[in-house]
């Protein structure tokens, strides 16, 4: 357990402190490395922290690792970044390789063990080339079924709530089809400010700051390799690589190239405001000659069965309902909070050990294939 606790922390401040301490290790390889801190939101001490160093001789390539875009998921992301620094930076070539590591893109969410920002925004539905072009009514399926996704009353007994949601989701699937309900969830929505999967009505400060780093890296380096760490999606206790179609490679090609079993390619038409897709669009528009590999890496929790996806729906909806509407039922409150942790930051030792093991596989496979690490 001691080894697991070395990487996984129990509070935002502790995780941030450990991340900042990585600066000395990075400076042993890149003496000019610096820590950049950006205060985010209205609360006094919520920050995005960035460890950054350019290459010593020529900026041929850079490794860009990000964590905490979905708040609570940042605990696993920070663990993986620490693992990477302690086990692999010695193998990197600082003469032509830079490094950029990011802790807690959504610091409020990480501090409060939520996925969203204090404005209820899912940051991975908030990235658009033109911030004024954030859509409003694009997700018609969500609008049709908003009574499922946005219960406007306090949480009652947990068994009653689960039964009610199962019935509502089953009816919605009968009416709109299973794919329709999944589409309503996956696309994001931009109308209901208190609803789940809300992409915002304007650009979030965290997004503005991260866009500036994306542009900086594209401007200064010829090749950018981006690994963005997340939790929940995919087979339990396994890592899944998720990449935009803008990468121009099919899943089979990616599996062969990287040697990973779980790879998904998504369409920008079905997922709006994704950060990695925005990265590709920015590269295409302003830096067409540069090489970019940008992908999410998800550590699975509930699994991929139909039952697991229903469990995910119910957990997300009830956690949001609890936050906005509250409850007088102590059992319901504790169940929802516990289930939300099970989905995004399980305290199970086996899961944490699997994150470290699967992260090692992903890091070695991707960074060797991309030339960041020697083969």
UniProtKB/TrEMBL annotation:
InterPro entries: DUF2817 (IPR021259). It holds the Pfam family DUF2817. CDD domains: M14-like. This is DUF2817 domain-containing protein.
């Amino acid at each position: 357990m001691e080894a697991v606790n070395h990487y996984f922390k129990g509070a935002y401040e502790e995780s941030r402190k450990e991340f900042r301490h990585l600066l000395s290790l990075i400076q042993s390889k890149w003496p000019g490395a610096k820590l950049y801190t950006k205060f985010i939101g209205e609360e006094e001490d919520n920050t995005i922290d960035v460890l950054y160093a350019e290459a010593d001789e020529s900026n041929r390539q850079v490794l860009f690792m990000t964590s905490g875009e979905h708040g609570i998921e940042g605990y696993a992301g920070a663990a993986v970044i620490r693992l990477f620094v302690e086990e692999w930076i010695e193998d990197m070539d600082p003469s032509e390789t830079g490094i950029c590591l990011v802790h807690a893109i959504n610091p409020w969410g990480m501090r409060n063990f939520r996925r969203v920002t204090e404005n209820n925004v899912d940051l991975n539905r908030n990235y658009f080339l033109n911030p004024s072009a954030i859509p409003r009514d694009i997700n018609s399926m969500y609008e049709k079924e908003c009574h499922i996704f946005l219960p406007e009353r306090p949480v009652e007994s947990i068994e009653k709530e689960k039964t009610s949601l199962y019935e509502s989701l089953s009816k919605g699937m009968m009416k709109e089809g299973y794919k329709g309900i999944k589409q309503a969830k996956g696309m994001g929505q931009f109308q209901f400010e208190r609803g789940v999967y809300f992409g915002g009505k304007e650009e979030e400060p965290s997004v503005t700051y991260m866009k500036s780093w994306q542009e900086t890296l594209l401007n200064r380096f010829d090749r950018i390799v981006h690994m963005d760490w997340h939790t929940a999606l995919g087979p339990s206790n396994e890592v899944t690589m998720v990449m935009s179609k803008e990468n121009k490679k099919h899943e089979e090609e990616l599996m062969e190239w990287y040697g990973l079993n779980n790879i998904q390619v998504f369409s920008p038409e079905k997922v709006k405001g994704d950060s990695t897709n925005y990265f590709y669009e920015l590269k295409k528009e302003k830096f067409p000659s540069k090489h970019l590999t940008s992908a999410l890496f998800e550590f699975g929790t509930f699994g991929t069965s139909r039952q697991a996806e229903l469990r995910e729906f119910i957990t997300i909806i009830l956690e949001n309902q609890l936050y906005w509407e509250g409850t007088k039922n102590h059992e319901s409150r504790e169940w929802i909070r516990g289930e939300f942790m099970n989905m995004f930051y399980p305290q199970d030792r086996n899961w944490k050990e699997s994150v470290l093991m699967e992260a090692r596989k992903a890091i070695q496979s991707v960074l060797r294939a991309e030339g960041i690490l020697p083969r």
